[in-house]
Amino acid sequence: MKRKCIVLFLFPVSLLLLSYSLSTGGEDKQGTETKIGYVGAETCKDCHEKQYETYAKSVHSKVSAKGPALQDACETCHGPGAKHVEKGGGRGVNIFAFNKDVDPKERTAKCLTCHEDTRQLTNWKMSKHSDEDIACNDCHSPHAQREKLLKEDQPELCFECHKDIRSQSSRQSHHPIKEGLIKCTSCHDPHGTFGENQIKADTVNELCFKCHAEKRGPFMFEHPPVAENCLNCHTPHGSNHDKLLISNPPFLCQSCHDASRHPGTPYTSANLFTGSSPSNKLYGRACLNCHSNIHGSNASSALGQAFTR
Ligand code: HEC
Ligand code: HEC
Ligand code: HEC
Ligand code: HEC
Ligand code: HEC
Ligand code: HEC
Ligand code: HEC
Ligand code: HEC
Ligand code: HEC
Ligand code: HEC
Prior knowledge:
16 helices; two-stranded antiparallel ribbon; 309 residues; binds heme C; mainly alpha
């Protein structure tokens, strides 16, 4: 009961604080020594009601209500707006806009004035996206009303620029990205990582083990290409072969194993399969008919060593 009272009491107080924080901007119209050139959010609201409202609902408004820069709401990003207002506003009129023709580094710098130390952005400056002059507001808008201020939901957000990945993830075998079971950001950090390809792990295998732990082993009999890199046989986004494979067995296997002896011509009955290219190896699951534990085996026998159980 007591708790409810406190909540009921605090709610109007926090509303008051919020409106106070937005309206102190108005008071700044007179201008103080430190605030010259700034007009405050209430003034912007007169002409930009829509942006005012999206901002007021956003995390930026909520957190800056507590910060020292509270008077500058809009102007923390758009810069001082007095001249823009004096001239009656307009495109290209004395205000910082995040349009495409503005240097992406400059746009990003506006965000980094506060986000320099945000944990998730530690690797931004060495990321491919930063190298390629992608700006924060290619993916985010502080006026977007989506989770994490994203301009578009995943994967559409990423597909807009990564058309090749869009087509890969429509292939017959694919990670369930379009189905919404996993996201691009389950595997990648668009803000950069230590690993290559902005993947969220030090190595490809460590990434795969996060969700496919049973492939980690340890196995009594390891298949060396598995331990080395899952991508020796798989492709991450999509494939026209089963199980995200880069090619089908037996060809997959024969890219490394001798095609001229057993591996290539497995256990044929010479009477049934003769001629220059004995083809029973192509039936069904080919090599996998027998070598079914291809990722490694713990069976303590020659059969384990050959991954047949
Ligand atoms: C945290 C930074 C930030 C804050 C705070 C912010 N904006 Fe923005 N604003 C942006 C960004 C980034 C864009 C560009 C969005 C995009 O790329 O779609 C933008 C776009 C705009 C635009 C241009 C829309 C168009 O049609 O081109 C207006 C107008 C605007 N903001 C007004 C405001 C007002 C008014 C406030 C305060 C109530 C405000 N902004 C607060 C970052 C901010
Ligand atoms: C007197 C009305 C008025 C006021 C007050 C005003 N603006 Fe504007 N602003 C405009 C008009 C008109 C445009 C052009 C919009 C358009 O063409 O859609 C504009 C455009 C903008 C743009 C886009 C600029 C560009 O080059 O694309 C931003 C950002 C912006 N205003 C931010 C602000 C901010 C922040 C404030 C408060 C500091 C503010 N405005 C106050 C009228 C105003
Ligand atoms: C005046 C300081 C300031 C500026 C400028 C600023 N931010 Fe923020 N931003 C914050 C704070 C504080 C938070 C809340 C704490 C956090 O997540 O770091 C935040 C949170 C966020 C979040 C997380 C939203 C969520 O739902 O968790 C995103 C995304 C974001 N900002 C993007 C941007 C972008 C993009 C820009 C530039 C257009 C920008 N910010 C400019 C201070 C700022
Ligand atoms: C290529 C697209 C892209 C770019 C560029 C980008 N972000 Fe993000 N950002 C995202 C996505 C997607 C998420 C949500 C991640 C998630 O849900 O795991 C996110 C999340 C965030 C968060 C919230 C982190 C958290 O987990 O709460 C902040 C803060 C943020 N971004 C700030 C920025 C800033 C600042 C920049 C520019 C330096 C930037 N982002 C550039 C796509 C991007
Ligand atoms: C299951 C994990 C996983 C998911 C989910 C995933 N990726 Fe990847 N992605 C990888 C791995 C691993 C690589 C490294 C490939 C290599 O080394 O050849 C990669 C490489 C990339 C590359 C660079 C190389 C290339 O093929 O062009 C891009 C771009 C990329 N991914 C974008 C995306 C996008 C966009 C999404 C969401 C639609 C996504 N990825 C989802 C694991 C994933
Ligand atoms: C505005 C365009 C744009 C958007 C949106 C975008 N990217 Fe990128 N991304 C690029 C460009 C350009 C490159 C560099 C060229 C390339 O590898 O295709 C890149 C590269 C990458 C790479 C390869 C990194 C490396 O180190 O080689 C990955 C992974 C990636 N993006 C993931 C994502 C994910 C995940 C999203 C969505 C959250 C996303 N991208 C959204 C433009 C974009
Ligand atoms: C974020 C979790 C996650 C990560 C990381 C991940 N996967 Fe998956 N993977 C899944 C899910 C979910 C499925 C679908 C499982 C299902 O349909 O039962 C799947 C399915 C697969 C399949 C079977 C595809 C099919 O057509 O049946 C293969 C092969 C696979 N993953 C390989 C990999 C490889 C290789 C990596 C590392 C590059 C990896 N996965 C990383 C979640 C993940
Ligand atoms: C030597 C080639 C090869 C390598 C390397 C490899 N795989 Fe596979 N993987 C296969 C084959 C072949 C299949 C299909 C098996 C079948 O159909 O029974 C498969 C199937 C899968 C499947 C789906 C069926 C299942 O067994 O769950 C997953 C998940 C998978 N692999 C994950 C991985 C991971 C994670 C790695 C890295 C640790 C990896 N693979 C490395 C050949 C390989
Ligand atoms: C990227 C190369 C590569 C691919 C692809 C590959 N292997 Fe291997 N495989 C190896 C290597 C290297 C060894 C270890 C050879 C050694 O110890 O002499 C090995 C070992 C084996 C062994 C055990 C050999 C022994 O004597 O212990 C079998 C069985 C085997 N592979 C079957 C397969 C099958 C079936 C496929 C296809 C699904 C396949 N391999 C795909 C590289 C590969
Ligand atoms: C009918 C079952 C069967 C099929 C099909 C089969 N194997 Fe085997 N393979 C075995 C058995 C059992 C062993 C272990 C006994 C032995 O060494 O003869 C073996 C051993 C191996 C070895 C290790 C010994 C060696 O001869 O180098 C490799 C490598 C191998 N197979 C690869 C393959 C490849 C590649 C294919 C597909 C082109 C394949 N196998 C198809 C049953 C099969």
